[in-house]
């Protein structure tokens, strides 16, 4: 199983700590957009 992340247009993503993003990412329900630092993030299981 692989995870894929899609970012919609938003602020520069480097404002988010990647390690923290991963912790948040693990809590994101599948296919539900989450707003982080002005970016909408989607999690897909491929």
Relevant terms:
single chain, three-stranded antiparallel β-sheet, 1 helix
Q: How would you describe the overall organization of this protein?
A:
The chain has 46 residues and is of the alpha+beta class. The protein has one helix spanning 18-27; strands at 3-7, 34-36, 39-45. It has a three-stranded antiparallel β-sheet, with no helix packed on it. A hairpin with a 2-residue loop joins strand 2 (34-36) and strand 3. It is globular and about 20 Å long. The mean pLDDT is 63.
Give the arrangement of secondary structure elements.
Blueprint lengths: L2 E5 L10 H10 L6 E3 L2 E7 L1
Antiparallel strand pairs: 1-3, 2-3
Number of strands: 3
Question: What string, H for helix and E for strand, traces the elements in order?
Answer: EHEE
Give the neighbour order of strands across the main sheet: 1-3-2
Low-confidence stretches: none
Tell me the number of structural domains.
1
Q: What would the principal axes of the Cα set say about the shape?
A: globular
What is the oligomer described by this structure?
single chain
- Beta strand %: 25-35%
The overall pLDDT, averaged over residues, is 63
Distance linking N and C termini: 6 Å
Tally the helices: 1
Into which percent range does the helicity of residues fall? Answer: 10-25%
Give a quick account of the main beta sheet: strands, pairing sense, barrel closure.
3 strands, antiparallel
Structural class: alpha+beta
Gyration radius over CA: 10 Å
